[in-house]
């Protein structure tokens, strides 16, 4: 049973949180884009066996968390700490999928001594090191797109949405009005996952977009702006997991992060896409549990 609760932040904004309430190993889950923060139900059975207690939160503008336009990746550290404080939790591990992996890495960088270990599955790398001088492709994009650096290997829909984010929040918000998604970002193995336990994503995405696209817009803008921290400063154990067939967030993002973060372990998953890589979830939870101490 997941208990839901609200945390009132010092500036008066509300952060909506989640707590499984049981387990001796707290893990703060960081959700992807567009999702709400409900912890990943397909991993509950493994988590229970390992004694993991889930904590999580809806990032601003998702669910009932107050919007916070202009937030950066680093802001996740303060949010995670606030949720843990509200539940009387001191030290915790962090786990994130997709853009949530980037937010988990920010916690590892900014909460030394408090984050015991960080695992990021299909994480998004910082944009600045890959910033390209050429103008972004117009949106919407029709047909295949060849984009260098940070965009290389990304499906056309992702290139278009994130290129709009590079232009600014207003451009990304305008693109959201016409965005119909891009199924080419998913491999056949990804699509097959939706027919099993990870069909859980359907309800999570629907809930995330129920009040409009602002959470997704703010996420995308944060991905292409400076993080507000350097993942290289993380000193806890860090695990990066990425599917080599991922077209939502290409595996080169985790390769870059592994080269940047001292001591980070990189596990590439041949043939896995953005969703099918989550079959690694139980092993990742075991890795986190082994490093809690």
TrEMBL record:
Keywords: Hydrolase. Pfam families: Abhydrolase_1 (PF00561). The keyword Hydrolase applies. Residues 26-279 form the AB hydrolase-1 domain. InterPro entries: AB_hydrolase, AB_hydrolase_1, AB_hydrolase_fold. It comes from the Bacteria. GO terms for molecular function: hydrolase activity. PANTHER family: AB HYDROLASE-1 DOMAIN-CONTAINING PROTEIN, HYDROLASE, ALPHA/BETA FOLD FAMILY PROTEIN. This is Alpha/beta hydrolase. It comes from Dactylosporangium sucinum. The lineage of its organism: Bacteria, Bacillati, Actinomycetota, Actinomycetes, Micromonosporales.
């Amino acid at each position: 049973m997941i208990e839901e609760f609200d945390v009132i932040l010092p500036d008066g904004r509300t952060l909506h949180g989640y707590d499984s309430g049981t387990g001796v190993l707290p893990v703060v889950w960081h959700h992807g884009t567009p999702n709400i923060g409900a912890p990943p139900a397909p991993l509950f059975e493994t988590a229970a066996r390992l004694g993991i207690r889930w904590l999580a939160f809806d990032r601003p503008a998702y669910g009932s968390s107050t919007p916070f336009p202009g937030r950066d990746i680093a802001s996740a550290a303060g949010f995670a700490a606030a949720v843990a404080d509200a539940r009387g939790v001191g030290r915790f591990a962090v786990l994130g999928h997709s853009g949530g992996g980037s937010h988990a890495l920010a916690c590892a960088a900014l909460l030394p001594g408090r984050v015991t270990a960080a695992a990021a599955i299909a994480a998004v790398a910082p944009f600045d090191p890959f910033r390209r001088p050429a103008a972004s492709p117009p949106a919407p994009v029709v047909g295949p797109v060849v984009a260098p650096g940070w965009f290389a290997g990304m499906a056309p829909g992702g290139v278009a949405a994130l290129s709009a984010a590079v232009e600014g929040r207003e451009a990304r918000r305008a693109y959201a009005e016409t965005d119909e998604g891009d199924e080419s970002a998913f491999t056949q193995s990804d699509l097959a996952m939706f027919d099993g336990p990870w069909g859980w994503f359907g309800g999570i995405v629907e809930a995330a977009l129920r009040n409009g696209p602002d959470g997704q817009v703010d996420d995308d803008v944060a991905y292409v702006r400076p993080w507000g921290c350097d993942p290289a400063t993380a000193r806890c154990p860090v695990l990066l997991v990425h599917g080599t067939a991922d077209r939502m967030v290409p595996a080169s993002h985790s390769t870059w992060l592994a080269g940047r973060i001292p001591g980070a372990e990189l596990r590439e998953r041949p043939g896995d896409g953005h969703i099918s890589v989550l079959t690694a979830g139980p092993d990742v939870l075991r890795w986190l549990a082994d490093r809690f101490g």
